[in-house]
Design goal:
The protein is of the alpha/beta class. It is built from twelve helices and twelve strands. It has three domains: about 100 residues, 4-hydroxy-3-methylbut-2-enyl diphosphate reductase, catalytic domain (Cobalt-precorrin-4 Transmethylase, domain 1, 3-Layer(aba) Sandwich); about 80 residues, Rossmann fold, CATH 3.40.50.11270; about 100 residues, 3-Layer(aba) Sandwich (Cobalt-precorrin-4 Transmethylase, domain 1), CATH 3.40.1010.20. Bound molecules: iron/sulfur cluster (SF4).
């Protein structure tokens, strides 16, 4: 008989719990509810909420909505243009932006306003086009420079000051490396402000999840492929246990590997519902 364990530290972070709670409350009022983008980077959870009446729309759909619609903004947050359109067209916003992201948006807007006259460049360490990054860029009228890795540092003009922030789900180690590289490229006389704005809901999970995955012949890391924090946590698991496989849901289970393994660990991202990890555990038990 196999030993199977679900990591007690994996599953939704409070930002996602809050967004889903707001969606469920709004849906229970009976009126229609649109969600701008997938509420969470997890197809199965999106399907569960869509079965309750949530309709996922994209940004093109959004800008053709008219008065009377209700739109949920997910935890990633949105740029000011979304709120301006809602006000203009009388669209009701159910704002489920995570408080951590809201705070970061405000911080970037303040720095943008205060440092504009000094020509200091706002730089965001994050993934270009990621929903949270789009929301952060919007705080600077889309003038911020987004860097995803060391190669992107060439986008920065090192004859001007820099004010650096991070997308909330990036790796702390990589952020610190970027800070050092910028520091070494800028003259001491130039402004260099850097703010580690990485959410500890992700980074604090790393030591625990690394400890967890050590104990198994096979680890199933359950996450939607689009999840940024999923990628970070998965890479950390792989460093400790090379037999870690990412699966989006039970349809992707590596049956051969599962049959050979005696100890199987199941863990996931901050966007992975606990019920999905339990479903996978159940499915594995049924294979025996
Ligand atoms: S990972 Fe952090 S910032 Fe992102 S939704 Fe969760 S709590 Fe909020």
């Amino acid at each position: 008989m196999k030993y199977i364990e679900i990591d007690s530290g994996s599953g939704f972070c409070f930002g996602v719990v809050n967004a889903i709670k707001k969606a469920e409350e709004a849906l229970s009022e009976g009126q229609e509810l649109d969600c701008l983008g997938d509420i969470v980077h997890n197809g199965q959870e999106v399907n569960r909420l869509e079965d309750k009446g949530l309709k996922t729309i994209n940004h093109t759909d959004y800008f053709s909505l008219k008065k009377g619609r209700r739109v949920l903004l997910r935890a990633h947050g949105e740029p000011p243009a979304i709120y301006e359109y809602a006000q203009k067209e009388n669209i009701e916003i159910v704002d489920a932006t995570c408080p951590v992201v809201l705070q970061l948006q405000k911080k970037i807007r303040n720095k943008y306003e205060n440092l504009k006259a000094l020509e200091v460049q706002i730089v965001i360490f994050g993934k270009p086009g990621h929903a949270e990054v789009v929301g952060l860029m919007g705080q600077t009228n889309d003038t911020a420079i987004v860097i995803e890795n060391k190669d992107d540092l060439r986008k920065i003009d090192f004859s001007k000051g820099v004010c650096l922030f991070s997308q909330t789900t990036k790796s702390v180690d990589e952020f610190n490396q970027i800070v050092e590289l910028i520091k070494n490229s800028l003259a001491d006389s130039l402004v260099f402000e850097h703010y580690d704005t990485i959410c500890r809901q992700v980074s604090n999970r790393i030591p625990n999840i690394k400890d967890f995955v050590k104990n198994f012949d096979l680890v199933l890391f359950v996450s939607g492929k689009k999840s940024s924090n999923g990628k970070v946590l998965y890479e950390e698991c792989k460093k400790v246990n090379a037999n870690t496989i990412m699966v989006a849901d039970e349809s992707e289970l590596p049956i051969d590997l599962i049959q050979k393994a005696e100890r199987i660990g199941i863990c996931g991202a901050t966007s992975t519902p606990r019920w999905l990890m339990e479903k996978i555990e159940h499915q594995i038990k049924n294979l025996e």
